[in-house]
Amino acid sequence: MKDVLIITSYFPPETGAASNRMFHLAEGLQKENYKVSVITPLPNYPTGKIFPEYKGKFKHISVENNITIIRLWLYASNSKNKFLRLFAMFSYSFSLIWFFLWNKIPQTVIVQSPPLLVAFTNMFFLRSKNRKLILNVSDLWPIAGLELGAFKKNFSYRMLEKIERLNYKKADLVLGQSEEILTHVKTLFPNKNTFLYRNYPDFEVSKIEFQNPSEQKIKLVYAGLLGMAQGIYKLCEQLDYTNLEFHIYGAGAEQAKIEIFIANHPELPITYHGEVTRKELHQELLKYDLTIIPLLNRIYGSVPSKIFEYARLGLPMLYFGGGEGEDIIKRHDLGWIAEAGNYEALNNEISIIKKSDLSLELKEKIRKTALDKFDFNHQLSRLKKII
């Protein structure tokens, strides 16, 4: 039985795409007869506070579904203060180094990036111990940070670029969730071994619910992080509600603003449902006609994992983010597209969608596409051959 260690900054019970991605990878490898262990911080995302059941602990070890999970201390923060965020990353890096000094590390290690500094700690320290290092890149930092307006092209940005390159250089294999990520890596290191590892979900699917096409408005839903990059607050302001009701699930930095906006505009058909578990969310989403996947700005290398999750649920999509995600929606006929950041184009697209277009037949077709084209186990079997 081959030992594999996964090092990640996000893992359940935390929610979100990164947490789900690493959980499915760990679970998938364990089912394929790997001995899997995971190192991750004490749960704190997205609140920036250690979850109550883990408070006061410096290390927590558990075995869940035959996976050993080692949770290490960090200074938790989601503050907008860059120095506090940086200190939070450094604190986890220090905990990792301390763990490496006193514990045996498996020969094969999968490292999640970003955060860049945490990934660099792993790549630098473990490379000297002659481990096979696999870097799983889910977003292109610092490029994504620049496009989001979080960074400027200054000395700090150039330092992050150097760290990014060192991470790629030290990796024996780079996994990327998008073709754009792999193209970027190959541009810097043409001979680097790479593998396209999409964030395909792996869950049992429920029967698709029939929605009566004669019912009034289209039920549009957004579920996920309510952060600056998604722009849900601006979406609430800009949507044309003539033929629409809007439902929101999730939590994040814009949550309070969204709740205030809804309270101040009771005439608008917007409902905020709060945050629910992933399993509960899958059942809730089956009630809706259409989902929206927005990004405030097109981010190079980013492919929202929601595309694959919603396709598996058979949920038609309205994609509003540009880039490679837009190409996937088009190629597999998963829904509708509006130019990223163009709210007039978005409302025009919504106006041409009829309730009857969102039929049971369409939903079943989307689900079939997902089961055929976005198969987690098939992807994992190919990955096994190279790790």
Automatic annotation (TrEMBL):
One of its GO terms (molecular function) is hexosyltransferase activity. It holds the Pfam family Glyco_trans_4_4. Keywords: Membrane, Transmembrane, Transmembrane helix. InterPro entries: Glyco_trans_1, Glyco_trans_4-like_N, Glycosyltransferase_grp1. Residues 212-370 form the Glycosyl transferase family domain. The chain crosses the membrane at residues 83-102. CDD domains: GT4_WbuB-like (cd03794). Residues 18-188 form the Glycosyltransferase subfamily 4-like N-terminal domain. It comes from the Bacteria. PANTHER family: SULFOQUINOVOSYL TRANSFERASE SQD2. This is Glycosyltransferase WbuB. It comes from Bizionia arctica.
